[in-house]
Write a structure and sequence with these properties.
The complex is a heterodimer of chains A (389) and B (315).
Chain A (H helix, E strand, L loop, with lengths): L11 H7 L2 E5 L6 H16 L2 E6 L4 H6 L10 E2 L2 H6 L7 E6 L2 H12 L3 H9 L1 H9 L3 H14 L6 E5 L8 H14 L1 H6 L3 H5 L5 H11 L1 H15 L2 H16 L3 E7 L3 H16 L4 E9 L7 H12 L1 H7 L7 H32 L5 E6 L8 H12 L1
Parallel strand pairs in A: 1-5, 1-6, 2-4, 2-5, 6-7, 7-8
Antiparallel strand pairs in A: 3-4
Helix pairs in contact in A: 2-19, 5-6, 8-9, 8-14, 9-14, 12-13, 16-18, 17-18
Chain B lengths: L8 E6 L5 H14 L4 E5 L5 H6 L9 E4 L2 E5 L2 H12 L8 H14 L3 H15 L5 E5 L3 H8 L1 H8 L4 H14 L4 E7 L3 H17 L4 E9 L6 H10 L4 H9 L4 H27 L5 E5 L8 H14 L4
Parallel strand pairs in B: 1-5, 1-6, 2-4, 2-5, 6-7, 7-8
Antiparallel strand pairs in B: 3-4
The chains are: A alpha/beta (389), B alpha/beta (315).
Chain lengths: 389, 315
């Protein structure tokens, strides 16, 4: 397929060579995970050094391609043999990890609990499991937290993160701040006050009475107990959340927004680009995925397609004999022209959307529509090749 | 299959990017055009519902956007206010500000509370028979199970209190397959198919809600029959394309490339479709063709509603 086009003088290759952390984000279904993996594979193959890709719930076949089936939260090296099988002698190493939210939370609790009793009490708390798996920002927070933790070990030259699917692509930017706010809020302190003194706090009376009637006081006590335990880790958590925020705004960190050229993802990409600018975070590139080839809007090809549609029978007579019944040949020619014009409608819409997005960053990479799925490292490198230039 | 729209509550979900909102909107539009009083509710309000109907933004207070079709955007805070007003007869208008903030905090911390307010409001509309059908543009597949499982989660966590008492009738509605169902939207691509199969498993294991149907969106047309494809292949061999170029007066190579791409895409998608079908024995699959057209607005919604209507056996 045709190669990618970028603004002259800049490329994803240059960006990845200059940064230590690359965060891939974008709305669901745009090919974020594959893009992150392909970029990481290219960096490991051609830039060298130790490259880690942290993915979230990758396609099973992609996991298999990376030899990741048996692994979870722990970073695992992708065998260089897989690169050699693709005809590439890798200059560096590719490592990969999948994000396991529960395991990561357990790890955090173990790291921050002041004593073994608190640790065990939290891990055994029935609310804990529920909160860590369902807490709205839980995934976002843990992804950023893992990123920070791994980066601070100094084991990798480049870390590429595939962000979790969030309701809003920008949610995770605020996740660590929100977590810090959460643990330092007055409400949490109030909620974890001993029950007796809480009852005499005049200001809290309306809430208590309503909450009791709706939820029952026992449930509130359970919640309070849970947070009382959690608050013992307050210092560690808040400090950590701030450090994560610092990492995101560091000069060595950049964001790559992945999108397709459909209406909804484009709108979310625009919002995301604005959100990054507001927070003074570095937008490195926009990757436009699954884009139809540019020749679908080619003038001469359009004329040809229109003729195939309007004069299929006449043209069928002009093709050499022996191909089949003329009326069937005519139908094929008509279908070919019709299909081209159909795809052209989509291609034109995409071109419009692309023009709207192109104003934003230095690097805009357009990746052509793949007509097959990626099943191995060779496939990743092929996609990577389109990303690279 | 016509009984899909005879249910009272449909949750439309699917992986991000598959056209979930459009399908929900089209189902609502179809039901309304067949005389059902229909409420469309957008749960993760991003304004997409307003886009597909080319109408003003939706709000918690429902608005009639087409004859027989009402639209609303879910808000947990508004839902709480309504709940307090209806259930506790509490005139809380003056105090709702600080209370809502406090509530927001507890709801974030205590899992299931926000979800129950969403599901509760939707079940309430069904319970009170305000509408013949409620179609929900539900959260994406990653989040919808938590929402549908909320009444049970609450029942496990909360031992006494009003909310617990209310989970009973909600579960009755959610668990009745004659009334409630999930419609999963997928495209015939790798990840949407994988997620659909996983979601079907989780719905079964973790919720009482029935998987009513799977809508396969953006199905590409089959360009050629087998013998026609042989003709197409033959066109690309040797100098035949040259003869065609001469006859057309323009190079046809790109046009043939375009058809080639369409055939390959169709073939890859057919494989994913086969995986989907094999993984969901007994589940009704409905097909919506890829619409090669400009509009993403009302016009597209109507065309998809028509396609769904044909699948459901409406004339």
């Amino acid at each position: 397929m045709s190669s990618a086009r970028t603004v002259p003088g800049t490329s994803l290759e240059h960006l990845l060579a200059a940064k230590e952390i690359v965060i891939c984000c974008g709305s669901g279904g745009v090919g974020k995970t594959t893009t992150a993996a392909a970029a990481a594979a290219m960096a490991a193959a051609h830039l060298g050094g130790k490259v880690l890709v942290i993915t979230v719930d990758p396609a099973r076949r992609l996991a298999t391609a990376l030899g990741l089936e048996r692994f979870g939260n722990l970073e695992t090296q992708v065998s260089p043999e897989l690169f050699r099988a693709a005809g590439v002698e890798p200059r560096g190493e590719l490592w990969a990890a999948m994000l396991d939210t529960k395991e990561s939370w357990d790890g955090l609790v173990r790291a921050h609990a002041p004593d073994p009793e608190t640790r065990d009490a939290i891990l055994a708390n029935p609310l804990y499991g529920n909160i860590t798996s369902r807490f709205v920002q839980s995934h976002d927070y843990i992804a950023m937290e893992r990123l920070y933790e791994i980066h601070s070990t100094g084991r990798y030259d480049l870390i590429i993160v595939d962000t979790p699917p969030t309701r809003n692509a920008i949610d995770f930017l605020d996740a660590s701040e929100r977590m810090a706010d959460f643990f330092s809020s007055r409400l949490l302190r109030w909620l974890t006050m001993p029950a007796r003194s809480r009852l005499v706090t005049a200001a809290s009376r309306p809430f208590t009475s309503v909450a009791d009637r709706i939820l029952g006081s026992q449930f509130l006590e359970d919640v309070a107990e849970f947070f009382l335990l959690f608050q013992r880790m307050y210092g560690g958590f808040v400090e950590r959340a701030r450090a994560v925020t610092r990492t995101l705004s560091d000069k060595r960190t950049t964001f790559v927004v992945v999108s397709t050229l459909e209406t909804a993802p484009v709108r979310e990409t625009e919002n995301f680009v604005e959100a990054l600018a507001r927070r003074r975070l570095h937008l490195g590139a926009i990757v436009l995925n699954k884009v139809l080839p540019g020749w679908f809007v080619d003038r001469a090809a359009t004329d040809a397609a229109q003729r195939l549609c309007s004069d299929a029978a006449g043209l069928a007579a002009a093709v050499p004999d022996g191909m089949g019944p003329p009326e069937q040949v005519a139908r094929v020619l008509h279908e070919v022209g019709e299909s081209f014009l159909n795809f052209q409608v989509v291609a034109k819409r995409e071109a419009e959307q692309r023009a709207e997005l192109a104003a934003a960053p230095d690097v805009v990479v357009t990746v052509p529509y793949a007509d097959h799925d990626i099943t191995d490292v060779a496939g990743l490198l092929e996609l990577g090749g389109a990303l690279w230039r | 299959m016509t009984d899909l729209l005879d249910r009272r509550l449909l949750f439309v979900t699917g992986k991000g990017g598959v056209g979930k909102t459009t399908i929900a909107a089209a189902l609502g539009d179809l039901a309304a055009s067949h005389g059902k009083r229909t409420l469309l509710c957008e749960v993760d309000a991003k304004g997409n519902l307003a886009d597909v109907f080319e109408t003003a933004p939706t709000a918690f207070r429902e608005r009639e956007i087409a004859p027989g079709l009402w639209a609303m955007a879910m808000s947990t805070e508004e839902s709480l206010k309504e709940y307090l007003r209806l259930q506790l007869k509490m005139p809380l208008l003056g105090r709702i500000g600080p209370l809502a903030r406090t509530f927001d905090f507890v709801a974030n911390a205590a899992p299931g509370i926000k979800e129950i307010l969403v599901v509760g409001k939707l079940c309430w509309e069904v319970h009170e028979r305000h509408y013949d059908l409620v179609v929900v543009d539900a959260p994406a597949s990653g989040h919808v199970v938590g929402q549908l499982a909320a009444p049970e989660a609450i029942r496990d966590l909360v031992k006494v209190g009003r909310v617990r008492d209310q989970t009973g009738w909600m579960l009755d509605i959610l668990g009745d397959r004659g009334q409630t169902g999930v419609v999963v939207v997928a495209t015939p691509e790798e990840m949407p198919v994988v997620e659909t199969l996983e979601l079907a498993e989780r719905l079964d294991a973790e919720t009482v809600v029935d998987l009513a149907a799977v809508v396969v969106n953006r199905v590409l047309p089959e360009l050629f029959t087998r013998s026609e494809e042989e003709i197409f292949r033959a066109l690309r061999v040797g100098d035949r394309a040259g003869a065609l170029d001469a006859a057309v007066g323009e190079p046809v190579g790109r046009v043939l490339d375009g058809a080639e791409l369409a055939v390959k895409l169709r073939r890859t998608r057919a494989e994913h479709l086969a995986t989907l079908r094999a993984g969901l024995p007994g589940v009704e699959l409905m097909y919506v063709p890829e619409l090669f057209q400009r509009s993403h607005g009302l016009r597209a919604t109507r065309m998809i509603a028509e396609a769904l209507g044909a699948e459901l056996g409406y004339e």
